[in-house]
Amino acid sequence: MTLMAHQREGVDFLLARRAGIIAFEQGLGKTLVAIEAFRRLHRAGAVRGMLVLCPNSLKRTWAAELERFAPDLDVELIEGARAERRSTLGRTVATVILVNYEAARNEITSIRGMLARRGTVLVLDESHYIKNFRSLNSIAAQHFAPLSEYRWLLTGTPVTNQATDIYPQICVAAAGEPFGSHASFEARYGGKDLGGRARESLAEKIRPFLLRRTKEECLDLPPKLFEDVTVDLPRWQRKLYEAVRDGVAAEVDSIPPEDFHRYLPTGLVRLLRLSQVASNPGLVFPDERRVPGKFAHLDRTVDELVEAGRKVIVWSYYVDTIRLLEARYRKCGSAALYGGIDPRDRHSIAARYQEDPNLRVLVANPAAAGTGLTLTAADYSVYETVTWRYDQYAQSQDRNHRIGQTVPVTYIRLLAADTIEFAILEALSRKARLAQDLIDGDVDDTFPLKLTRRSFTELLQTGRLPASTEGLGP
After folding, report:
1. Of 139, 345, 419, 440, which residue is least crowded by CB atoms under 10 Å?
2. Per-residue CA distances from 185 to 145, 190, 206, 308 (Å)
3. Cut 0.85: pTM above it
4. What is the DSSP string of 19-66?
5. Which 3 state secondary structure label does DSSP give 184?
């Protein structure tokens, strides 16, 4: 296979270090880097197998990439009920084993036994799935790491929410705790203002474990163009939004300031409901059948793009909205991608969208379609909703801005006027700056981390993110 310069650099990094994080931006070929590095080790007799942990939706992407770039390697997908998974893990002699994170955390003993029997490369794809140190995904990966001499983590978004996201990933790469205990790391870098010096210090610690490359450095891709469109809500929808907002504000006012930290998880759920009303009130009020402001604007945008011969991706985070919009645009030639669709079918839908000139509109959920798919047939993406999840937002952009794209890609973000959606957009921007500071350098000392009862109330009243916020959503 022919590798690009940055991919050759990635292969050399993994083979020389034996363990580390390939933090290439989406679309730069992280999977190919891992496959080629493994092939070289396998041919040399240094290892006998490779275990890939990945999101369930990416198992077949890996299988397809292995078939394409390493057809000589036999591959086993771990699937089915617990008894079937356990039986497969016990008997398989396949060179490459693919298992999703949820299955892996339920088969820790079986997988450890397999790792102990033969020299195996451990690969964690989308390794930010283990960012929560206490999560089952993270605990499972930490159990596996000491049994693998080669530990390769792949992610385009190693930091998605806060600086402590990187700690479990470094621990797996190092098969230990090179930065001390999690408690001490969290005390220094988490849950408080992370100033420029602290961020610069952490970035310096991270650097030896991580190879970061961006598309601007490696590819000659057309530009990304962003357009934020403020959508006025119809009067009925504005009344619903204000009623929900005022109800949350009254709830917050009734809580003593010293107890607010216990309310905060509930408060974030309330903010989610508020953003749903700003987007599609039917998500909160099932009997509501009137056309939301965003739908009316989206109708005009989709019609204009389709009439101009364009293909468009409409991104929404809510399954009920996705189903409604897919039916709404069926006359244009539409399809939907969301978590309820079998992973095996998602790839065939994506392939059909790429190839069928009559399939013009893809309505998709970033959680289900934001990774592992190529959708370069579309040069327009419209975000019907935005959420606090920076990783899904960033990855969804790169479904159609990647190798193979030949024209500029336009991203239209629909924002309900005078609502919390502007705060969400600012949160995404701040998360992006934090990730850039820690992974790419260029420390910016303006990222705040603190959320109080007062700042929460300010967010509700103004629809804008206060100057000081902690956590920035889930």
Report:
1. 345
2. 20, 7, 13, 53
3. no
4. EEEE-PPTTS-HHHHHHHHHHHHHHTTS-SEEEEEE-GGGHHHHHHHH
5. helix
Share of the chain above pLDDT 90, in %: 59
Do the domains 224-462 and 5-218 match in fold?
yes
Strand order in the sheet with 120-125: 75-77, 96-100, 49-54, 120-125, 150-154, 19-22, 210-211
Q: Is the CA virtual torsion 112, 205, 189, 165 positive or negative?
A: negative
C-alpha–C-alpha distance, residues 122 and 115, integer Å: 9
CATH class of 5-218: alpha beta
What's the full length of the chain, in residues? 474
Rounded Cα gap, residues 251 and 214, in angstroms: 44
Which residues on adjacent β-strands are paired with residue 224? 409
Q: Which tokens sit at 443?
A: 């420390």
Residue with more model confidence, 175 or 264? 175
Q: How crowded is residue 268: how many other Cβ atoms within 10 Å of its Cβ?
A: 15
Q: Which residues fall within 8 angstroms of residue 185, CB to CB, at 6 or more apart? A: 164, 167, 179
Orientation of helix 30-43 relative to helix 5-17, angle to 10°: 50
- Domain residue ranges of the chain, discontinuous segments joined by +: 5-218, 224-462
CA–CA gap between residue 78 and residue 73 (Å, rounded) = 16
User: What pLDDT, on a 0 to 100 scale, did the predictor assign at position 445?
Assistant: 35
Both tokens of 460, joined, read 């509700």
